[in-house]
Design goal:
A three-stranded mixed beta sheet has the order 1-3-2. By secondary structure, it is an alpha+beta fold. The protein is built from four helices and three strands.
Length: about 110
Amino acid sequence: CSPARRTRETLEGLAFENVPTNFLEALYNAPPENLLTALRQVDNACGSVLMIAHNPSIPTLAAALAGSGNPADLMKLNGGYAPATFSVLEFNAESWELLQQDSCCLIDVFTG
């Protein structure tokens, strides 16, 4: 999670309990490449990750990672991304280090 106030408020609104959270300065207003670097550094023991960061980098990264998925949902990634929108992507690999363009399937896009 970016350490910004707005991203922390988003995280608090999700009401996760007992879930480890890393607040990374590198995510604050970072370009998509920095977000990808952070994801590639995730411990391989983690089966899922929620990244909370900022526009326009989050939708740009999601669009780059999504190599497949419902065409209507894929279009949502390119048509603007309102605050509190999030994308669910599926990545099937043994290592987060293998995360790259078109390596995920877009499962859904939820708008706030």
